[in-house]
Amino acid sequence: MDLTVVAYVIYLLASIALTVWVARTLSHNGRIFLADVLHGNEKLADAVNHLLVVGFYLVNLGFVALYLNGDDSEITDTRGIFEALSTKLGVVLLVLGVMHLGNVYVLNKIRRRGVMEREQLPPVAPTDWVAPAAGA
């Protein structure tokens, strides 16, 4: 069998496994964060979490598929398989990490805005009105 095909198969299996693992981890642990961002609305947090996971899969698996044939060099030995796989999987891991950091950044901005809005509201509704002093 052609060693390039072997490298492709290993690359696809490893990339898909990594993508699924990262998506499940982010989905499981991100749900709590989303519930906080969305002020405890559990149904909305679950819906947004699911949409984020679907988008994550689409972008990452699309990148994995496009990056499958990233170079024109033919693999001739075992060393070539390891070199090709390390480069390809390294780039996939970097893309996964950048996407994760981007998601966390955006959600943190939304969370901060929500916290600031909550802080601007008085803790107790006013019960009376006081006219300003005449000398002021």
Would you kindly provide a written description of the structure presented here, covering whatever features stand out?
- With 136 residues, the chain is mostly helical.
- Helix content is 76%, strand content 0%.
- The longest helix is centred in the last third of the chain and has 43 residues, at 78-120.
- The protein has helices spanning 3-37, 42-67, 78-120.
- The protein has 3 helices and no strands.
- Helix 1 (3-37) runs parallel beside helix 3.
Question: What's this model, at a glance?
Answer:
By secondary structure, the chain is an all-alpha fold.
Question: Which structural class do the helices and strands define?
Answer: mainly alpha
**Mean residue pLDDT:** 83
Q: Regions with pLDDT < 50 over 5+ consecutive residues? A: none
Through-space gap between termini? 91 Å
**Estimated share of beta-strand residues:** under 5%
- How are helices and strands ordered from N to C? HHH
Q: Supply the number of helical segments.
A: 3
Approximately how much helix is present in the residues?
A: over 70%
**Global Rg:** 24 Å
Net shape: rod-shaped
| Biggest β-sheet description | none
* Beta strand count: 0
Helices and strands in order:
Blueprint (H helix, E strand, L loop, with lengths): L2 H35 L4 H26 L10 H43 L16
